[in-house]
Amino acid sequence: MNEIGIVTAFFDIGRGDWTPDKGLPHYLHRTNDTYLHRFRHMAQLENPMVVYTSKQFVKDVKLYRAERPTEVVIVDFEKNFTQLRSDITKVQKSEEYLSKINPMQVRNPEYWSADYVLVNLLKSTFVNQSLNHLKTDLIAWLDFGYCRDESTLNGVKKWSYPFAKDKMHFFNIKDWVEGTLIQDVIANNDVHVTGPCIVGGRDMWYKLEHLVYTHTMKLLENNLIDDDQTLLLMSYLSNPDIFELHKVSNQDWFVAFKEYHDNTIS
Known about the structure:
Layout: E1 4-10, H1 32-42, E2 49-53, H2 58-65, E3 70-74, H3 82-92, H4 95-100, H5 114-121, H6 123-129, E4 138-142, E5 168-172, H7 182-187, E6 197-201, H8 205-221, H9 228-238, E7 243-247, H10 256-259
Parallel strand pairs: 1-2, 1-4, 2-3, 5-7
Antiparallel strand pairs: 4-6, 5-6
């Protein structure tokens, strides 16, 4: 079975206040309504879906999903994950850490927003917690705002593709060059593997979660932190045999339904 179960999550981490008048780039500003509008597109998929969110957004998620197979899991994001959030914050406020970051990149949220980093690091955790709700052999993480407009769906109604079920599948935009330092990747926001879409066999996700956790702890121990894209890269480099990389063409991060869809299923 090549049908893909989908897991996503949405929490208010304050992006509605990330505005230029606070010295932040305009492209960081996204309101809750922005995310809900984007989710409305993805919600059209007939695939089974698990959504982790806070109580305030349950009504909207259910409205957009209508009668499609959906499990909504309420999480008190602010009160959970307190130790990891604290550890991330400690690094982000460290002068030693900030001194290593390229000044051209320092306004990006992975360097100052603990909640931004945290919610991205939890992707594989949420997928593993969703396994009892999904019966598909393949499961994908998709960011809540993955479908920025309806064209991202490419007309797909039910997403299916013969991804190898014994692999985790990453979408990469840049090949790894031997000798590159992870510290330099972090300092320069040097993205190799994209984070908005990750696909894997259901028995592979626990391996990814373990790798992400292990490398997160390694970064924290070295007074470093970054979002999921660096952690995914580190996971791949440490155990490449369990991964399959799919090169993204034209730097388009949102190609799942355009380039990886079984056209025999509408």
